[in-house]
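Revision sheet: structure tokens.
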Amino acid sequence: MKTWMIITVLSLGFFTAWPTTATPPYTAIIIDSGSPYFVPKSATVFSGAPIRWDNPTATEHTITHMGCLEDGNACAFDSGIVRPNDSFTLPGLAPGRYPYLCRIHPIMHGIITVTDVASFPSQL
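Predicted:
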């Protein structure tokens, strides 16, 4: 095999995009001490995409799917106590609408809308 052929074959390996399983970026929701309390109050995410709530407040909160509070409904998520300067992350949800609230402060509520998507684009 000639030297130029070996170099060509080796260099092609450096420029070929190898298939990857890209993890979609998470959707960030910030817990706030004032209205609207969850920022953004309404978020739309792709099915399977992670969702993270950050609590920069000085107060404990929960992120509780309203289905957890109703008899006979499925409970999609309940964070338990999210302490100050901590966070709660869901790895992803099935398509649908998920209203949620803080069980400690029921005036705090938001909604997650999850849309179906077949796959995410690869990130290089």
